[in-house]
Specification:
The protein is of the alpha/beta class. The chain is 43% helix and 19% strand. Bound molecules: 4'-phosphopantetheine (PNS).
Length: 165
């Protein structure tokens, strides 16, 4: 080192089911990427829920869709989110808030995570363009042949078409 001071990497976590990732998720992840050195996007492994896309498929879609941000790492996790944060040395969770209806549950989770492990949760207001958007609605609309282009990245659009076969 030549006198330069080193500082810890500022790392944030964007957790979720991502079944599949939507443009709303990508908006939040992209904005988090501008605030932090590294953003870990973690896909929940939920043994009680199979989902449309498998966890490895969701991770591949996320890697592909976030590659252009340049500072995203995609991982999966099971168990408590705070344990994953501890293992990866992450102190901040970033979540998007779409509407008041999201707030109650998100507040509960944020307070629980803070009480369990001192993990902070930062809420970003969703871009109004995506405030009605959810993975569940995308799947339902796509299932019945509705047009979800513009709501999900191209790789997800292709993935949804393949699942419909
Ligand atoms: O995309 P989702 O389904 O709204 O994401 C919810 C998620 C994965 C963030 C939440 O269910 C979670 O953190 N699950 C891990 C288990 C856990 O830590 N539960 C206690 C939360 S206070």
């Amino acid at each position: 080192m030549t006198g330069a001071t080193s500082r810890a990497i500022r790392r944030a976590l964007c957790p979720g089911s991502f079944d599949p990732v939507t443009n709303g998720h990508l908006d939040i992840i992209g904005r988090a990427c501008k605030l932090y050195d590294e953003v870990v996007v973690a896909v929940l492994i939920n043994p009680t829920k199979s989902g449309l896309f498998s966890v490895p498929e969701r991770m591949d879609l996320l890697r592909d869709a976030t590659g252009n941000f340049g500072n995203v790492i995609v991982e999966s996790f099971g168990g408590l989110l705070v344990d994953f944060c501890r293992q990866r040395d992450i102190a901040v969770i970033v979540k998007g808030l779409r509407a008041v209806s999201d707030f109650d549950y998100e507040l509960q989770m944020a307070q629980m995570n803070h009480s369990l492990a001192g993990i902070e949760t930062l809420f970003m207001t969703t871009n109004p363009e995506f405030s009605f958007l959810s993975s569940s609605l995308v799947k339902e609309v796509a299932k019945y042949g509705g047009d979800v282009s513009g709501l999900v990245p191209d790789n997800v659009l292709q993935g949804l078409k393949l699942k419909a076969l």
